[in-house]
Amino acid sequence: MSGLGLLVVSFLPWYSAGGHDLTAWQAFSVTDILMAVAAAAALTVAIVAAAHISVSYPPAGSSVTGLLGIIAFACVLFRLLDPPGAAGVGREVGVWIGLIASAGVALGGYLGMQEPRPRAHAGPDQPQSAR
User: Fold this and answer.
1) DSSP 35
2) Which residues, at least 6 apart from 24, have a Cβ–Cβ distance to it below 8 Å?
3) Global pTM exceeds 0.90
4) For the chain, what are the domain ranges?
C-alpha cells in the first residue's frame, strides 16, 4: 500500500512558491525518479506475493525494496529539511505524506525479508471445540 501511496502522492502539491504549487515531478530532477522506482519495486513485490507467481521473488524483492525505500526516505527527508529553489518556498501536504509513504516502503521491505511466523494450531490432544 505504501508503494501505491508514494506513487500517488508524487502528483500532489509538495511545495508552494509565489502562489504556485509544485508536485514532486515538477520540483525534483532525481528524487522523483528514485521515489517512482521504490514505489514500483514495492508494487511488484506485492503483486507477485498476492498472485503466488514466485516463491523466491518476494524475499529477494523485499530486500531491494527495503534499500530503495531507505534511499527514497533519505531523499525526501533531505528535501523536507532543504527545499529546492530559492528561499520562501513553502512545504505542502505532499512532502509530509511522501515522507510517511517512503518510510512505509522501507518498513514493508524490511518486514518482507523476515521469516514467516508459524501459525498456532490445535494439537491432537486438545478438544475439538478448541481447534
Assistant:
1) H
2) 9, 10, 11, 12, 14, 31, 32, 35, 94, 98
3) no
4) 2-116
